[in-house]
Amino acid sequence: MGGTYQVTMGDRGRLVIPAEVRERAGLAEGTPVVLFETSAGLVLFTRAQLRDRVRTDLAGLDLVGELLAERRAEAAAEDAA
User: Fold this and answer.
1) pTM listed for this prediction
2) From CA 4, how far away is CA 30, in angstroms rounded?
3) How confident is the model at residue 3 (pLDDT cuts 50, 70, 90)?
4) DSSP code of 13?
5) 40 backbone dihedrals φ, ψ, rounded to 5°
């Protein structure tokens, strides 16, 4: 699994993803994908891959708790002023 593939930009900005890559990734005509532009280059995800990546990146974080703590600190600072 994995590898390096050279593709060429076609008319109207179209790229052809090699058949073996499409098959492994479960891509079919009409499959939505997400293209990220990063400082390191372009990254292409299926929606499912992106969802899994975000869940992994956020695992173990208490975002609600952090937000509440920030809001409480801001309210305390306003009350003190």
Assistant:
1) 0.59
2) 24
3) confident
4) G
5) -85, -15
Name 41's bridge partners.
Answer: 38
Q: What is the pLDDT of residues 5-15, one digit of tens each?
A: 889 999 999 98
How far is 67 from 17, CA to CA, in rounded Å? 41
Tokens of 11: 């008319």
d(CA 41, CA 1): 21
**Residue where the block lists tokens 């090699």:** 18
Instruction: Indicate the Cα dihedral angle 15, 19, 22, 28, nearest 10°.
Output: 80
Dump pLDDT digits (tens) for 21-65: 999 888 999 999 999 899 999 999 999 899 998 999 888 888 888
What is the residue type of 51?
Answer: R
Q: Are 44 and 33 in contact (CB under 8 A)?
A: yes
